[in-house]
Each structure stands twice: as structure tokens, then as C-alpha cells.
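Troubleshooting log. The previous structure file for this entry was overwritten by mistake, so regenerating from the original sequence record. Sequence copied from the archived sheet and checked twice against the printout by T.R.
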Amino acid sequence: MMRILLYPHGVEKNYLSIYLSCGDSSFLPTGCWSKIAKYKLTLKNYYYCGKDKTLEGEYEFSSGKHRSSGYSSFITLTEFHDRNKGFLVNDTYTIVAEVCVENDGHRHPNDNHIMSLVTGNNNDELMDFKGLCRVRKDFVQLLEEACSKHPELVRGVKRKNWSENFTERWFMTLGRVLHFLKSHKDIKDMDDDTYEELQDLWEQLNSFGFDDLIWLEDDVKKYMAKKMRKNVDLEGEKGEFLKVELRLCHLVNSGQYGLV
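Regenerated output below.
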């Protein structure tokens, strides 16, 4: 069983470090052994097709050697954390390892194991969505309904020519917003943490730079307005302040701007 070892702050200063390891010894052959493995380590790019960062290597794993191989200086932390580079999006990144073990006549059940690490997603819970990407199964119906009512969603994604990974992240974030709104229709049951969750989700969705979301923005604003109404204390300065905020929200929604 091969594993990915990741050092987000680097082994060498200012670099992301990634290694391939033999993993748990219970999966390894007993006695003296050796295996020559060819491998690729890839840091996926969410923004740009063909801009993944890939390094290849070959290493002889054996009972008498250090059981990991990789790169202490895979990519600079500056480039990795640069939001415009496309490697780290919404605090999420994807690393894929492809491994080919040469057969020496003593084949082990875990030879030629191809391993991928996709942050936050279980492939068993994902399914194809319109041939564009894979999304969570519980988001599919919500996304289908949204795309049926607003066909500009699919057209806009195709027009932007995003990578499959970036498209997946966008549809997953949209699915989370839709799922949230469906699951929290009763504002009386909401607390401040849940309200902040919606704000965070909406900010994440807007960070992708997709313009055709006016229909959803209206729903989110209505929800936030309801939350303000719930919190209005009609006595004291707090109540007066919140009533002013609510009035401003109404002005913005009606296309008017000003102070009350």
C-alpha cells in the first residue's frame, strides 16, 4: 500500500514537500524484499487545463532502505498559496499519485496500486453531472432543477472553459448553497453560527467569478433579511441599528441607494 506524505510548510524552507511512502508494514512482504517503482506526483490546477504541477521519479523500495521517496522542494509556498495560480482554491487542493511497480516474479497484492488523494470528497459519493464533472449524489437533483430553470448556468460554465477540477469545485459550492437554503427554510430554528455559514458559502461561490447568479442572490438576500427581522430588538439602540440595516437592505434590493 502506497501513501502520500505531505508537508504543507515544507521540509526545505518555503517549499511544499511531497513524498511517496510504502506505508503500513502489515501490507509489505515478509523477509528480505525489494521493489522498483516508477511514480508520478501531481498537484492539480483548478483554474487552468494543462497547468498541473507534475514530477516523476523512480525508486527501489526495499526492506533495508528508507521507505519513502519524493521531493522536498515540490513547489514554492509562494506559488502554492497564490490565489491566482489555481493550486489552492477555497482552502482545498488535490494531489494525485500514480505508481507502477516492476514485476520481479514475486507479485504482491498491492503492486501497481494507483492512489489518489482528493481533499474532502469520497468518490463513492460522487456521480457524473451533465458530463462536466462529478458532484455529490445528494446535490444532483438540486443542481438539475437549478440548471433547468436557469440554463445560463451550464452555458456559462462551458463558455468559461474551466478545468474539470475547477468546474467540480464550482458546482459543489453551488450545491452546498442550494442544499443550505432547502434545509433551513424555518428561520426560527437558525442561530448566528448557521447564518454565518450561509454568508461564508455565498462568499465562496462569488469567489469563482461567475456572473449569472442574480436569481440566487435574491434568494440569499431574502434569507438574510428574514434573519435581521428575527434579531430586531424593538427596544434600545440595538433595535434601532438593526432596523436601519434592514431598511438599507430594502433600498439596495429595490435599486435605490441612500441613508434613512
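Residues 160 and 210 are 9 Å apart (CA to CA). Archived copy saved in two places this time.
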